[in-house]
Structures
1.
Amino acid sequence: MSEQRPGAARWVPETLSRRSLREAVQECRGCELYRDATQAVMGDGDRDAELMLLGEQPGDREDREGEPFVGPAGKVLDEALAEVGISPGDVYITNVVKHFRWSGTRGKQRIHQSPTRAQVAACGPWLEAELRMVRPTGVVLLGGTAGQAVYGAGFRVGEARGRLEEWPSSFAVERPPAWVLATTHPSAVLRSDDRRSAYDGLVADLRIAAEQLAT
Ligand code: SF4
């Protein structure tokens, strides 16, 4: 970590609760992304959830509202979860990066730009803290950035999706999740030329997670 990008560790509070994390993350200067964002967006949901869903970063709407997955992609995800019998209220949902990275505008909307590997690494202590707090049994990785944050740069969501995997030993956590499942980010459904089949693919992957939770 450089001096300009020291990483988030020094801002993570000792006592972990949804409230303490939400408050502390607003002070984070672990990388440069806080500068152009409205606010940080910490994960949300059931802190005792069996399932953690992990995305990339807040979007335009999440940045304004301060809540994760409240925009169009979140709606797609909620629908897909409902279809496989997972209540959105029973999961904990978060992103690997807590501030919105964007570049330029289209109308009133700011255009999403994926975070760099260095920014994902800088933000990692927040994800580690959330994993320590929630201690999920399973983690669903939504898209390539989330997958690379957990498995490293070689991760490709197209190759890995829909398969139950082990939590990697390279990512140390106090109580590692028993399984991990990768799928596409719900925003990929919205961008797809064939939304129906992209959505069906997301549902099929989430169904594997739902079945695993039921065992
Ligand atoms: S993106 Fe993460 S590390 Fe960077 S300032 Fe925001 S919370 Fe801190």
2.
Amino acid sequence: MFQSIGFIGTGHMGGALARAAAKGAAGAPVYLANRSPEKAKKLAMELDAKLSDNRTVAQQCQIIFLGVKPQVMARVLKDLAPVLAARKDRFVLASMAAGLSAQTIQEMAGGKYPVIRLMPNTPVAVGAGVIQYCGLDVTEEELKDFKTLLTPAGLVDQINEDLCDAAMSLSGCGPAFCALLIEALADGGVACGLPRDKAQMYTAQMVKGAAKLLLETGIHPGDMKDGVCSPGGTTIQGVRLLEERGFRAAAMDAVIAAYEKTLQLGQG
Ligand SMILES: NC(=O)c1ccc[n+]([C@@H]2O[C@H](COP(=O)([O-])OP(=O)(O)OC[C@H]3O[C@@H](n4cnc5c(N)ncnc54)[C@H](OP(=O)(O)O)[C@@H]3O)[C@@H](O)[C@H]2O)c1
């Protein structure tokens, strides 16, 4: 296991992953650094972690999570390059920056250091996220330890780097698509007379339950739909309407549109 874990940037995503890592760290110290230290200080108190700074994390930690925005990554790593170059021990850089390849991180850091690229989504904040990851110049053991470290955040799955953009377009963007669906279904419930808070609570729990049923039984989504649709019943009428309005095609196209935009940004 990693003997020391560091975070540079403890914003929304860095902070959520630090919470998970603090649980998966098996007692190893967690160091937190952030541009505005108050944020890291508050989190350090919550997690019983060490308040730190970028240089100390870069000097001391065996795994260094880079939680800054992609547009500031080059500057942050340029500042830290001499510190990293002076290290004699092995360490891993773990970047969560959308759209930056593992090789780009190596180039920005100024050395062929081991890099893990990870793609988390926002439900990692409640331990129900999806994190895809891939490694460059890392060992199998480091990949295994990385998975163990972040398992408290949710599903942690290794993929080839050429599938990262597709994965992000699905599970990274997906919480927004799901939020739209939940809001719309709850609106329907309100239109039928349910109070707003109940409509939203029922919808969210129903979506969670449907996903849990699918994951735990391995049932095909088509079979799950058939199981609810009694012949001549009510649900099939709703399904008919969704098909008529192109619901499936819209959902597919949402993922494809996000993917195409990711490719465009990568070229720009
Ligand atoms: N949010 C998502 O859904 C999501 C999904 C996948 C990947 N990501 C990736 O996660 C990374 C962080 O995104 P986010 O949504 O968590 O953004 P965020 O909330 O703005 O967090 C970025 C953090 O970096 C800190 N920071 C900026 N410059 C720094 C520096 N020089 N040294 C140390 N810390 C510095 C900021 O500190 P201040 O408090 O001073 O601003 C802020 O706390 C991005 O690379 C993004 O691509 C995010």
3.
Amino acid sequence: MVFTMKPRFQDKVAVVTGAAQGIGRGVALRLADEGAKLVLVDRSELVYELRDELASSHPQTPVLVLTADMEQATDCQRTMQAAVAHFGRIDVLINNVGGTIWAKPFEHYQVDEIEAEVRRSLFPTLWCCHAALPQMLAQGSGSIVNVSSIATRAINRVPYGAAKGGVNALTACLAFETAQRGVRVNAIATGGTEAPPRRIPRNAAEQTEQEKVWYQQIIDQTVQSSLMKRYGTIDEQVGAIVFLASDEASYITGVTLPVGGGDLG
Ligand SMILES: NC(=O)c1ccc[n+]([C@@H]2O[C@H](COP(=O)([O-])OP(=O)(O)OC[C@H]3O[C@@H](n4cnc5c(N)ncnc54)[C@H](O)[C@@H]3O)[C@@H](O)[C@H]2O)c1
């Protein structure tokens, strides 16, 4: 028997936040491979490079590109309104914006740094879920995947871990509220992921020697805590995100799936 996989996102409208690089970019390319109409959002103008790349690699893929700051509720609302104005619906929302800004033991964080971590890694997901939900509920369908982290049990980034713990909780609670109205909400707890050097840095300041040591401790602990004793690839994260977003996961909601080589976070 020949097994032919149909494009899972044919004619579906998918919003991907933080699409300019890394995991978000990988998700956007995979969704394009599988037939989606894309709304790509990032704070960085580099997201326009991805649009140009898609124009040559996937000329049939309709793409709307926006720059916006997902830490701002109004920008998240503007993004979802633009998606609906352009494509008429939102079937899939991938909340990918996040990432630790600092790496150090908790006692070394300043109060304003703790707030910045929560703004970066909790609020974009909270705001975007809130902004997309009315459209999905009106449609009676939708699939949200939040990109969380195994860093909910990890060293040298307590504020980030706390923010991602919030993402896991909002995933479970929102799924509870929306399951009978056609909207699924899931998350992946991303493990350590190899990626090319970041063109958009999470923190533009040069690392001190001490900060390099603290960052290396994160890498060592991440490898040690995984059963496979290695980092994963962007493709390994993308596969899980896209599965949860697709109708193949139609009986799965409220779940945070660890994708960390056996590290459950
Ligand atoms: N890379 C890893 O090892 C790893 C591990 C665990 C979890 N994660 C999670 O996976 C997700 C993606 O990680 P990554 O390493 O690909 O990220 P990255 O830092 O490489 O890229 C993040 C993208 O989001 C954009 N962005 C950041 N803040 C934004 C904002 N306020 N508004 C709009 N766009 C914004 C950036 O410009 C960038 O394009 C994050 O949520 C991160 O916490 C990553």
